[in-house]
């Protein structure tokens, strides 16, 4: 008994915190790696429709987004209330689709260009007219790989 | 002199206690800004654009399943009103034609699904129809790969997938939309 008591008395009562920064740094690096900083400001309201047959887009650097929807309330006095096309962080016209795709192609190594995917994030309430127009523009720009962004359906 | 020696004794190691605080701060920043949002959706391949009128390919009537969606989001399949809930089964029956019906596709590789919508069709309705067609093909491919390789299509090797794909190609023909409905 006395031996135990002696030992306890000697050991320091503080917890070793020297390795705490290491643990925290590990977590930090994990989050730094998985973080994608939201780079675009959302001007148009998009609620994507639901679907079951989903494919995930893996390589973020090979994906660019085209948003189609009604402008959010804050921007309605500038852009009106009918559906508009947002590319990057600005409202652009149909004629800019080819340029937008071209810009992305320049940033990607040449052998990966065919793998570039356009993700269409289209609001479910939007009518097909504007979507068809964008699709036609994409075909003219030889950008054939397209993803209709959807939410998984929960039954 | 006495003072100097005291400092020497003290600063032999850097005080790392504050390091954790700094790391915590950064950690919380990244925690807050992180969106582990992965984008998912229906991946399609658009056909190349040509300025010329497309050649009229004469397809055997039985090999084409025409689907029309109008501006009221109502659907016609081969000219008859149809519910989207039944579309997957209808498409699967059409593609595989298990009973050798003379009205349905001769073989899965001949089957063409023709999809036409209006400019006023809602995107949601369009995606719903597209999703059902994809579901039909995915189910059929899964069945075929289970039969031949005993595994799901997604788990097959590239070579095996190619075999399945050539057996059951996904041929979806999208026509230019009609312009009856109202766009907004």
Description:
Chain A is of the alpha/beta class. Chain A is about 35% helix and about 25% strand. Chain A has helices at about 1-10, 20-35, 75-80, 95-105, 130-140, and strands spanning about 45, 50, 55, 65-70, 85, 90, 115-120, 145-150, 150. In chain A, strands 1, 4, 5, 6, 7 and 8 form a six-stranded mixed sheet that branches. A two-stranded parallel sheet of chain A has the order 2-9. Chain A starts with a helix and ends with a strand. The mean pLDDT of chain B is about 85. In chain B, about 40% of the residues lie in helices and about 15% in strands. Chain B contains five helices and six strands, in the order ααββββαβααβ. Chain B has a domain at about 60-175. Chain B has helices at about 1-10, 15-35, 85-95, 125-150, 160-165; strands spanning about 40-45, 65-70, 75, 80, 110-115, 170-175. In chain B, helix 3 (about 85-95) packs across helix 4 and helix 4 (about 125-150) crosses helix 5. Classes of the chains: A alpha/beta (about 160), B alpha/beta (about 180). The interface between A and B is large, with 56 and 51 residues.
Structural class designation of chain A: alpha/beta
Strand content of chain A: 15-25%
**In DSSP terms, counting alpha (H) and pi (I) runs of 4 or more, how many helices of chain A?**
5
How much β-strand is present in the residues of chain B?
A: 5-15%
Q: What is the distance, rounded to the nearest whole angstrom, between the alpha carbons of the first and last residues of chain A?
A: 64 Å
Shape type of chain A: elongated
User: How would you write the strand order of the largest sheet of chain B?
Assistant: 4-3-2-5-6
Largest sheet of chain A: 6 strands, mixed
Structural class of chain B: alpha/beta
Q: Please state the average pLDDT score of chain B.
A: 83
Q: Pick out the low-confidence regions of chain A.
A: none
What spatial form of chain B do the alpha-carbon principal axes imply? Answer: elongated
Number of helical segments of chain B?
5
Major sheet description of chain B: 5 strands, mixed
The separation of the N and C termini of chain B measures 86 Å
- Subunit organisation of the chains: heterodimer
Largest interface: A-B, 56 and 51 residues
Indicate the radius of gyration of chain B in whole angstroms. Answer: 29 Å
Rg over CA atoms of chain A: 25 Å
**What string, H for helix and E for strand, traces the elements of chain A in order?**
HHEEEEHEEHEHEE
Number of strands of chain B: 6
């Amino acid at each position: 008994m006395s031996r135990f008591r002696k030992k306890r008395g000697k050991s320091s009562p503080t917890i070793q915190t020297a390795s705490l920064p290491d643990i925290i740094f590990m977590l930090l690096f994990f989050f730094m790696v998985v973080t994608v900083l939201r780079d675009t400001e959302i001007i148009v309201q998009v609620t994507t429709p639901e679907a079951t047959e989903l494919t995930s887009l893996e390589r973020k650097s090979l994906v660019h987004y085209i948003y189609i929807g009604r402008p959010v309330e804050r921007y309605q006095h500038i852009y009106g209330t009918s559906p508009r096309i947002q590319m990057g962080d600005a409202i652009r016209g149909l004629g800019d689709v080819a340029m937008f795709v071209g810009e992305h192609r320049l940033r990607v190594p040449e052998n990966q260009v065919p793998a570039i995917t356009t993700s269409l994030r289209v609001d479910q309430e939007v009518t097909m007219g504007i979507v068809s127009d964008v699709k036609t523009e994409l075909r003219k720009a030889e950008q054939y790989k397209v993803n209709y962004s959807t939410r998984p359906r929960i039954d | 002199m006495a003072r100097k020696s005291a400092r020497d004794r003290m600063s032999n190691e850097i005080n790392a206690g504050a390091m954790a605080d700094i790391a915590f701060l950064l950690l919380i920043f990244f925690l807050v800004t992180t969106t582990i949002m992965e984008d998912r959706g229906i991946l399609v391949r658009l056909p190349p654009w040509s300025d010329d009128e497309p050649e009229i390919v004469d397809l055997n009537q039985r090999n084409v399943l025409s689907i029309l969606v109008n501006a009221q989001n109502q659907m016609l399949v081969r000219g008859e009103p149809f519910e989207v809930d039944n579309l997957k089964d209808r498409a699967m029956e059409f593609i595989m034609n298990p009973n050798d019906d003379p009205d349905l596709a001769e073989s899965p590789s001949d089957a063409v699904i023709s999809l036409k919508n209006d400019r006023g069709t809602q995107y949601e309705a369009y995606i719903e129809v597209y999703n059902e067609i994809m579901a039909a093909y995915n189910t059929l491919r899964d069945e075929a790969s289970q039969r031949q390789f005993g595994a799901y299509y997604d788990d097959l090797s590239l070579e095996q997938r190619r075999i399945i794909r050539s057996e059951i190609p996904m041929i979806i023909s999208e026509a230019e939309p009609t312009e009856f409905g109202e766009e907004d």
